[in-house]
Amino acid sequence: MSEYQKQLTQHQAALAELNKQLPQLRATAREAEQTFSKSRAGKPRFPHEQVAPYTNAKAAIDQHNAEINRLRELVSWEEGVRSASSDIRKAQKEAMHTQGELTKLVEKRTKISSKLEKAQREQRGEIEKAQTAEQRAADAYAAALANGDDAAEERAEKALKQASEAMTQAVQGKRGLNTLLATLTTEIEKLDVAISDAKQRLADYRQDQLNAARLLWAERLDKAAQDFAKVAAQFTATEKALGRRYSNLEDLNVPLQAPMGPKHITHRKILEMAQAISIEELLVA
Hints:
Blueprint: H1 3-38, H2 48-147, H3 150-172, H4 177-241, E1 253-255, E2 264-266, H5 267-275, H6 279-284
Antiparallel strand pairs: 1-2
Helix pairs in contact: 1-2, 2-3, 2-4, 4-5
């Protein structure tokens, strides 16, 4: 357990204890205040001894909460940096697995979609075929009526009836075809949900990788900044030993990424570091 984790645990324990005591402290303080407000004898003395513990407890709770929030950020940074490499590998492994799953889902959807389109084409074809037959039967029936041919009219009427029944059957769908279409459509909808979920997980894994990579690069950036500061201090100490007053590092301000410690390396810090370097150390270079 790191020092920050120890401090966090201590503050959390202290906060829990204060929260446990707070109701009783509040009740005592309110009772004392009510007694004070109702007192009519002379100049009553405000019950600071009874109210102060509650006030102090609230202030301490606020302080502990502030420290807990600060320490959580530091612990999160420490844990993130420590596990960044393994987190990247883990997310990469999960992403590869999910990508394989996504590929299978897309392939399955493509096959089912192809079957659905084929079934829909067949249904449209049956309807168009039935429409054509019905129209021909209607034309034949009209022609028979116009010619006054009773026998032809009877045959045409029978054919028209059959064509109309075929048309109705085609619209309603062949046996089982509508059920098949509904089943395939439902399956595609389920696959779309699964595909969307897999894509979201892939995006989340990529985000996890980038967050872990950011911590790694931030740590390396801070290390590089500290290394730079050491070299800058040695350079500054050498310039000072040569009697040169002006420094082109006066405007130096290098930002640091870690939430703990200083936020920048400034020229003042470089000067402080330079003062601690002896000429003998400079000549070792």
